[in-house]
Amino acid sequence: MIRLPRALSVQRHIPADLGPDEVEQIWALMSRSVARERDEFEARLNNCDEIHLVRERDSDELVGLLALHIIAERAGRRRVTLLHAQWAFMAPRWRGRQIFTHIGARRFLQLFLRHPLRPVWLLYSAATVSSFSMVAKLARTFWIASQPDLPPRLSELIDRGMRRVAGDAWDSDAGVLRGKNKWQYREGVLAPGARPSAPLVRRYLAANPGQAEGDAAVCLVPGSLRNWATAAHRALRRTRRSARLRRLSSRKRSSRRYRIDATGHGL
What distance in Å separates the CA atoms of residue 125 and residue 84, rounded to the nearest whole number? Predict the structure, then answer.
């Protein structure tokens, strides 16, 4: 089971419930990672169906944001629920803890239990290589909107979902959300002319050559129980591995402080 760190809490809101202070905190958190117009930000925030705010319990500081649309659609003849991730931002000190996976898994189970015969699929726009890799490394199966072997029924599903949440910013021919220089990400952006060696990064760059202009590659993760179970299992392994590395790093720092103090230096 993927657990939320005890030091954190998650609150779910609808946009109408957010007060001016909370909107300001969300804006400050987002501005660390992306530059965008305030009016455009507020319009998109108000268009979301639910906002998940991650806070530190002791300080009540906002350290994470997950903004979602929940869309009832059809994939061929089958009814599905699209869980569209509008934004996902996390303070650097809490990254690598699979916090968004925890929130997503809980929402998946809640929506699945509400409609057991209706699969819950994840639709998301990856504006950075980091957000693309985060899901691509967890899901057993996922599709990129621009890949040539995308089944027609999934292409139609992506098109209908993206038109509902992005309007004319969605470029169905290219399979990307066009940023049109309305926002610029400060991290996770490949330098112009970069030739990455990692296959996953090369795949992202091929799918989103306009990243520097704020474009985002659109991806779809089928919502089978097997796919969600695989993602949860991989996330749990990554969480445990990260925890081991943090403990090892902490021991090394403690050992180093002890050696310095024992010699009388640095006191």
Answer: 8
